[in-house]
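RESIDUES AND SHAPES:
===
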Amino acid sequence: MKSFPNPKINLGLNVLRRRPDGFHDLETLFVPYFGMRDELEIEALPNAGSGSKVDIQISGPKVDWNPQKDLTVRAYELLDADFGLPPVRMRLVKNIPVGAGLGGGSSDCAFALRMLNEIFSLGLTDDALAGYASRLGSDCAFFVYNNPMLGTGRGEVLEPFGIDLSAWRLKVEVPSGVAVSTAEAYRGVLDVKTGDTVRMPLREALARPVEQWRDCLVNDFEATVFPLHPEIPALKQRLYDEGAVYAAMSGSGSAVFGLFRI
């Protein structure tokens, strides 16, 4: 079975508070983006032989991690622990940039959960799959549904959100050679994000016309990431210069997107 995991963008990302467990409460609107995609293939194997039950190959630019620690393998291990799955072979081609705030790895693992559920007829609902996905990462559960979702908590509490962007062309770009770690983005974000400015609640900002978003729809991570990586705000400004009505960094960066009127 083959699928094509897609990335996401964030419309607004408000970091609200640090939690006792070390995570942060936030609010954001996850929106799927279909202009790029990874490629994931999974097939069942007759027997495990020796070693891991997952034979995985990962290719693509900047693939420098242990394949056995990839989120797709961890997704398999979660289901295997509960259902005793047969061994599998996975082939993952990474086209979604790594460290770009687009959620490529989270998408891969969510698609893997859906595929394994189908291949082995586990009968898990989307909500059940989302429960597994949320154990792997804060935005993984979103990709189980892959529709616009308002994310709260650490991003795993999801609520369907109706938004019509059909009148807009979405353009996503990543600065060459720039990757941002999530830890880097979070460092000090609560200290610098607002100052004396009162942040508009996300729902209220999203209810305004897209033409007004530039003044009210904010990604708080821009405050910590932009000073460290000036290529990112330069790219954001270039999108505005090209005619974007709204532009922002996605997630913790480094990708930037712009909305252009069709």
